[in-house]
């Protein structure tokens, strides 16, 4: 029989913390990664609390909520689907995909919980109906119903701040932003993407003047980037900003194309930092400095979070942010 001491030794946490967590102490406050690690170890060792074993769910639905836009824009979610599937198979979980929330609602009784990927807007009434029939779910990449379901997201607000700090430390003060539109939080739909909201907030707090340097409209596609890049060049041909933060690699590809066509050389005339670190970032000209989003960590965290919610039957909802990592290439090289 597995003991608390064995779980504590393997997980690296105190026996008291392990005991309180696995026995459902409501007064215990620990970080999500601590909770996840202890539960993972207890599952690996086959620990059971009374007659109930803490185990990963076996029947999980995937609400595939990603719209098809274009190849580069879709590549991020294609990779996320693949990574989620790999993680699930490694845990002997059976995944069933749904492209429409109504179909998932109709078949909810067949599943222990669900994981959702993709940014498409879901109506509040559908989310409420889903919660009534399948209360355990985790949204990856967005947070459309924080009072109903859990979520795990890349920390894009911190990413924007990190990018601004890096640029300022390299002597760049006139920093622009290029991105798409659309953002959902709770039951509210906003026309402004969260990355742009963070950019406005942080530039104001850092005392950076971004007046006339923000270009944000359209989908997250190469065409959007090309159009907005052309607008930026037309507005600032003789006085380009020191740098641009671009919301996604798919947009950045179009931005670089527009700049090259107009004779704007990156990074000589302006620097570019993007987000996502898709494979294409290695093949643009110049190669693209971009923040990497660890999709394996997103998927693994979502699975663990769902398992913990189902095992503990908790009613409070957890929202986890995963940090990003800058991958430096030619479009911007930080000052040493």
Automatic annotation (TrEMBL):
Q: Which PROSITE patterns match?
A: HTH_LACI_2
Q: Which InterPro entries did the record assign? A: HTH_LacI, LacI/GalR-like_sensor, Lambda_DNA-bd_dom_sf, Peripla_BP_I
Q: Give the molecular function GO annotations.
A: DNA-binding transcription factor activity; transcription cis-regulatory region binding
Q: Which Pfam families match?
A: LacI (PF00356), Peripla_BP_3 (PF13377)
Signal sequence, renumbered to the chain = none
Q: Which UniProt keywords apply?
A: DNA-binding, Transcription, Transcription regulation
Q: Where is the HTH lacI-type domain?
A: 2-58
**Which positions, given as ranges, span the membrane?**
none
At the top level, the lineage of the source is Bacteria
Output the SMART domains linked to this UniProt entry.
HTH_LACI (SM00354)
Matching entries from Gene3D superfamilies are given as:
3.40.50.2300, lambda repressor-like DNA-binding domains
Q: What is this protein called?
A: Transcriptional regulator
Q: Provide the species name.
A: Bifidobacterium longum subsp. longum
Highest classification ranks of the organism: Bacteria, Bacillati, Actinomycetota, Actinomycetes, Bifidobacteriales
């Amino acid at each position: 029989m597995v003991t608390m001491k064995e779980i504590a030794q393997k997980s690296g946490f105190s026996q008291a913390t392990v005991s309180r967590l696995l026995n459902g102490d409501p007064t215990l406050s620990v970080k999500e990664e601590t909770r996840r690690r202890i539960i993972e170890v207890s599952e690996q060792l086959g620990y059971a609390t009374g007659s109930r074993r803490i185990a990963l769910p076996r029947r999980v639905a995937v609400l595939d909520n990603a719209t098809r836009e274009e190849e580069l824009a879709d590549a991020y979610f294609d990779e996320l689907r693949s990574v989620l599937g790999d993680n699930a198979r490694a845990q002997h979980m059976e995944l069933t995909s749904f492209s429409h929330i109504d179909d998932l609602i109709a078949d909810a009784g067949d599943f222990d919980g669900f994981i959702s990927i993709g940014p498409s807007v879901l109506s509040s009434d559908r989310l409420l109906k889903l919660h009534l029939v399948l209360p355990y779910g985790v949204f990856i990449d967005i947070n459309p119903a924080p009072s109903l379901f859990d979520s795990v997201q890349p920390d894009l607000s911190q990413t924007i701040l990190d990018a601004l700090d890096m640029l300022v430390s390299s002597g760049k003060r006139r920093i622009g932003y290029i991105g798409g539109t659309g953002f959902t939080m709770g039951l509210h739909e906003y026309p402004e993407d969260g990355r742009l909201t963070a950019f406005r907030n942080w530039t104001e707090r850092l005392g950076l003047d971004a007046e006339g340097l923000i270009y944000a409209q359209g989908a997250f596609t190469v065409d959007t980037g090309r159009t907005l890049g052309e607008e930026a060049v037309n507005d600032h041909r003789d006085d380009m900003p020191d740098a641009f933060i671009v919301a996604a690699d798919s947009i950045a590809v179009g931005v670089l194309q527009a700049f090259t066509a107009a004779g704007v050389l990156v990074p000589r005339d302006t620097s570019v930092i993007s987000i996502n670190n898709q494979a294409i970032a290695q093949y643009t000209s110049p190669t693209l400095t971009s923040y990497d989003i660890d999709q394996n960590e997103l998927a693994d965290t979502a699975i663990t979070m769902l398992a913990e919610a189902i095992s503990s039957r908790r009613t409070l909802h957890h929202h986890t942010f995963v940090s990003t990592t800058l991958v430096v290439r030619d479009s911007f090289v930080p000052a040493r």
